[in-house]
Amino acid sequence: MYRYDVAVEPADIDFMGHVNNAVYLRWVQDAVVAYWQKTAPPDAVAQHLWVALSHTINYRRPAFLHDDVVASVVAENVEGARAFFTTMFKRGEQVIAEVKSTWCCIDVATKRPARLARDVVSLFIPG
Fold first, then answer.
1. What top-level class would CATH report for the domain 2-124?
2. Rounded distance, CA 59 to CA 95, Å?
3. In the predicted model, is pLDDT for residue 127 greater than 70?
4. Tens digits of residue pLDDT in 2-58
5. What is the pLDDT, as a whole number, of residue 83?
6. pTM for the full model?
7. Cα(84)–Cα(30) distance, rounded to whole angstroms?
8. What residue segments make up the domains of the chain, in order of their start?
């Protein structure tokens, strides 16, 4: 599991006074990419990009300006060039949103889908 601190900015707040639903997509993108950059070897980071294919978001509670929000990212599985992640957003112990997402690994040079080497996958999904 990877922990990513989220900064709630004034621009994230919508007309109802809480974080706009669309902001969670940016947060997921930032958290998953940060997880990749922190966990993968530098050569793998330099050779691969990630493109989001789908997100399913379950909103549980609203988040507000000045909340301390933490994203916990878990890589669930890798199949070919696709990776499946769960990102849980919490304020303290309260789950405010859960996101299931599918990503495609892209080769930097060709801009085509690319499989990750097994040794790289094993850093995210042991065993």
1. alpha beta
2. 9
3. no
4. 999 999 999 999 999 999 999 999 999 999 999 999 999 999 999 999 999 999 999
5. 96
6. 0.91
7. 15
8. 2-124
Nearest residue to 33 via CA among 75, 76, 95: 75
89 φ/ψ angles, rounded to the nearest 5 degrees: -100, 130
Give the CA radius of gyration of the chain.
Answer: 15
Which CA distances in Å does 37 have to 32, 40, 49, 50, 80?
Answer: 9, 6, 10, 11, 19
Q: How far apart are CA 29 and CA 49, in angstroms?
A: 12
Condensed to tens digits (0 to 9), the pLDDT of residues 56-114 reads 999 999 999 999 999 999 999 999 999 999 999 999 999 999 999 999 999 999 999 99
84: tokens are 């499946």
Count of residues in the chain: 127
Residue type (1 letter), 91: R
Rounded CA-CA distance 44/119 in Å is 11
Question: Cα separations (Å) of 60 from 21, 57, 123?
Answer: 11, 9, 30
- Secondary structure of residue 105 in the 3-state scheme: strand
Residue 107: strand pairing partners: 48
